[in-house]
Amino acid sequence: MPSANNPRVHAQIPAALAAAVGPTTKILAIGSVTAKGTPEAIGPVLPFEVRATVRNHLAGKIDQWFFQTEGYGVVFIMNATSTTEAHEILEKLPLGVAGMMEFELIALGPLAPLAMLIGDPPQS
To answer: Ramachandran region of residue 108, left (φ > 0), alpha (ψ -120 to 50) or beta?
Structure first.
């Protein structure tokens, strides 16, 4: 069944596959600039945004960071165990506080469904 929380799921997930989902260990955060985020508005806030982002990186919350080359925004790989935790961190960034950036959050975890392919070897 498609997940109400995930608009990218368009097919029914087999029960065996759904049961194999592991814990969330990372969050993919895709940031998009909102209509409020004009270049004139972002410019004065950007130095504060960079400092806050670096602080989150040094605190171990933002593991990797990228700039979208086919868009206008950032992509973070975050060390968090829920989208709620990641949202709480990101909403405190200056661009988020100012309503100039919003994030799509995607929970990531180990590729646990691979366990179905390897199975337990037969016992002799």
So the answer is: beta
What SS3 state is found at 55? helix
Rounded Cα–Cα distance for residues 123 and 120 (Å): 8
Contacts of 55 (CB under 8 A, 6+ apart): none
Give the pLDDT confidence of 68-120 residue by residue, as tens digits. 998 889 999 999 999 999 999 999 999 999 999 999 999 998 887 777 777 76
Distance of alpha carbon 6 from alpha carbon 114, whole angstroms: 21
pTM over 0.70: yes
Strand partners, 65: 76
Q: Which of 82, 78, 85 is nearest to 24 (CA)?
A: 82
Going by the DSSP 8-state scheme, the letter that residue 13 receives in this structure is P
